[in-house]
Amino acid sequence: MKVLSFGSMNIDYVYSVPHIIQPGETLSSTNRSIFIGGKGLNQSIAMARAGLDVYHAGKIGSDGTVLLDALKDAGVHTDNVKIEDALSGHTIIQVNDEGQNSIILFKGTNYMMTEEFIDEVLSGFEKGDTLVLQNEINLLDKIIDKAYDSGMTIVLNPSPFEEKLLGYNLEKVSIFMINEIEGNQISGISAENPEGILDWFSSHYPESEVILTLGAEGAWFSGKQGRFFQPAFKVKAVDTTSAGDTFSGYFIAGKAMGYTVEDALRLAAKASSITVSRPGAAPSIPFIKEVV
User: Fold this and answer.
1) Catalytic site residues?
2) Nearest to 20 by CA among 106, 104, 101, 105
3) pTM reported for the whole predicted model
4) Residue 179 has what DSSP assignment?
């Protein structure tokens, strides 16, 4: 089985601020750092550091060689990363004194996917392989349809949420990786009612598994194996930027390596707790030897 992460790659400009800026406010930052990130890249690195053999597909600009280098350094296969004559995706991230963040995203080359490129990438994968997707690239619906037709197992993290996602055939998704906000946006069930969100997914997508993360509260799993809750490990949060991507990557890796659902949840929760204790996105993701 091969794992393909078809997703975004971004350069992150991170500003340390006393609080998240308010409308009309001008605020001085205490520091600026530059990191590599993007949900696709983060999840690729998380899965690779967890021990999986990972292939990444996506597009960067000539300013994005640092992104390509980061994937290679993590041991991710990069033959399906294409360089375009355009600006790479980037983000502007505020991180406050409590470690909470606010993110502005510039799509850049992440929104230059074509059907020809998708066909070229997917031609190297087959039935039984796993496809990991996020919602930071264009033509996501085409990727889902084509991967499903080829028999791949599809994992979707529908972040950032957009209404058009509800028009896609999400019955083709095998595993949903969502947080409580995305769960509310998709289901209409209050974010304060996580089991209600899980009930909605069980009713509308009975063949799919759902992992619902709740930040510092922990995470739920719901599927045919049952329903399980994993509390979060308590740590001092420094930067929560890639916590969800780390959780997703490590949970997928745990399942691929034959862990039970409970053990995969615990592995993911522990890895995520290490991530939030460090600054940055991809650089904060731990290696498996730090987690087990």
Assistant:
1) 245
2) 101
3) 0.91
4) E
